[in-house]
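agent> fetching stored inputs for the adenosine-5'-diphosphate docking request
agent> found them:
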Amino acid sequence: MTIVAIANQKGGVGKTTTAVNLAAALAERGVRVLLVDVDAQGNAASALGAPRGVRPNIFDALLGGVALEDCILATGTERLDLVPSSLDLAGAELDLAALPEREQRLAAALGGVRGRYEIILIDCGPSLGLITLNALTAADQVLIPVQCEYLALEGLAALIDTIARVRRQLNPSLCMLGVVATMYDGRTRLARDVADELRRHINTLFETIIPRSVRLGEAPSHQMAVLQYAPNSRAAEAYRELAEEVLARLNSGLAAAPQASA
Ligand SMILES: Nc1ncnc2c1ncn2[C@@H]1O[C@H](COP(=O)(O)OP(=O)(O)O)[C@@H](O)[C@H]1O
Ligand SMILES: [Mg+2]
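agent> prediction call returned; pasting tokens
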């Protein structure tokens, strides 16, 4: 079992879209996947049809003494299950801070589902706070989406620093799975320049680039991953390719050696 945290403290870079569609692409490929939504906004879970406010949820598992396996919901996709988030998570950092082993709560909770899934994806919120630290402490690998926009690399240094700190203090085996460029619009000069810049600066950049696609924005309102909503779209194809690359990296053990940089 491999746990992958999808993280970037910048909002709107494609974390949730990548979590949902990579999860669906891996499941389509035959992998048993659990998607854990730890963003208070709960967009990953609702994109796959989880009702808002459903209980028990990740908040109950982290702070309410509920077993995480009791929070699992099936999705419309075979082999893909999810753990929904909760708005209560927004205020949970303070409650968590007062608890013993406060960075290890998610790792401990996920211990209960070990063996049931081959890959667990954690969709992080836009912060480097305690919930994201829990995700990085529970994870074996980090996947970082960056948007092909002006200042794409802004904030990446802070994230890399946080990952290095987690590795020193909490989770020595945490690895960088890679950086994936999202919302690429090949018609614009800016997007092409940003993609070139990413290729120059990021060793772990995935070859797959996720195109800007209106289908990706539409799919969540139909409670479907784009792989079901528009199975033949370029966006669906891109997430299938990303899934292949992710599996190849996990299998090659390339990602196994802890790397300090992106
Ligand atoms: N490749 C893409 N093409 C078009 N829209 C996208 C794409 N990826 C994400 N979006 C849209 O951009 C917004 C932010 O994406 P999201 O995945 O929620 O980012 P994050 O989780 O990092 O905040 C959402 O409205 C989403 O539908
Ligand atoms: Mg999100």
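agent> quick read of the result: The longest helix spans residues 234-252.
agent> awaiting further instructions
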